[in-house]
Amino acid sequence: MPEPYEPNQLPLNCIDWAEHVSLIGKANASLARYDEILQASVNPEILISPLINREAVLSSRIEGTRASLEEVLVFEADPDGDVNPKKRDEIAEIVNYRKALRLAEKNLERKPLHVNMIKELHAVLLNNARGRYNEPGQLRTIQNYIARPGQPIEQAIFVPPYPFLVPDALSNWEQYLHSEEKDPLVQIAVLKAQFELIHPFRDGNGRIGRMLVPLIMYTKGLLSRPTFYISSYLEQNRDEYYQALLSISTEGDWNHWISFFLRAINEQAMENSQKAREILRLYEEMKTRVPEITRPQYAVSAIDTIFSRQIFKASDFVRISGIPKTSARRLLKGMSEEHIIEVIRKGRGRRATIYACIPLLQITG
């Protein structure tokens, strides 16, 4: 079989800092502008919730999951609906990804990022999903590999380090995480790649690796909240993403990967900023329209509920918004008539009517 990869000791001594100066400046500036939007928002949650949903879908899609954002949200609104088992597993992966991101943000309020926290996130990620039998939350004890479907290890594209090397490699990774580097974005590039090359788990390494990007950004003080999502760029440039990672193991070419990662941060920060501005514009528009339909004291709760769920049934709307049932149902009817929300599935028998905020889905879909 191909020789297992032997991780570099961190910090690296092969970074060509001069080569990356321009991209470092652009990426840091774009990221700062994105964080300014988050900080300026009176209620950052109206931005974060739709963007987290989008990230969960796109990060899982890189790994072959095909469930759409709408399918995930419809399932959450009606878990007892008709969904084939394969699609149900895919949806579970996406829901778990979002749960892990939320847990990470909560944990980072109390303690710094560390390997045991990452294990906890991994356990959430694989819980009751396709990877449930791949030792959730545990470092791998077997030699795994990456290959095309059905191919043996002899034809592997990449063979990670021997299992007995994983704990020491992660210890070195964690020491570097908590050290200072000339530029934190370059440091994050190295940390993300090194984590995925160590491949510490039997499954879910790529998703955890992408999840680590905003968590480390927050740890390094680059973000006011750990809410930067990179999977859109990586999904659109999947071949280059994998090739840049592979070039580290095959050629020792860290600078190619660092350049790719900095471009990804720059372009993704600009896209995230644009998405955030579009979400805020829609929110402000709804703040003008919804009070015309209901009592002023209900308007903000109604809008915030829509932005937190995007697709929902009436009982969820009542529960989350806290609006009295009679007023809430009247409000749903009024918002539907004004096309603020749309009925995407009419209720029948015991099946509830499902509503969606189509403009918000168009922004984040």
Helix and strand layout, with pairings?
Layout: H1 17-40, H2 45-62, H3 69-77, H4 85-108, H5 115-126, H6 166-177, H7 184-198, H8 205-219, H9 231-236, H10 238-251, H11 254-289, H12 296-309, E1 311-313, H13 314-321, H14 325-337, E2 342-345, E3 354-356, H15 358-364
Antiparallel strand pairs: 1-3, 2-3
Helix pairs in contact: 1-11, 2-4, 2-12, 4-5, 4-8, 6-7, 7-8, 7-11, 10-11, 11-15, 13-14
Q: Can you describe what's shown?
A:
This protein has 365 residues and is mainly alpha-helical. The protein has two domains: 17-276, Fic-like fold, CATH 1.10.3290.10; 293-364, Guanylate Kinase phosphate binding domain (2-Layer Sandwich), CATH 3.30.63.20. The chain contains 15 helices and three strands. It has helices at residues 17-40, 45-62, 69-77, 85-108, 115-126, 166-177, 184-198, 205-219, 231-236, 238-251, 254-289, 296-309, 314-321, 325-337, 358-364; strands at residues 311-313, 342-345, 354-356. The protein has a three-stranded antiparallel β-sheet, sandwiched between helices. The longest helix is centred in the C-terminal third of the chain and has 36 residues, at 254-289. The radius of gyration is 22 Å and the shape is globular. This is Fic family protein. It comes from Methanoculleus bourgensis. Pfam families: Fic, Fic_N. Keywords: Cell cycle, Cell division.
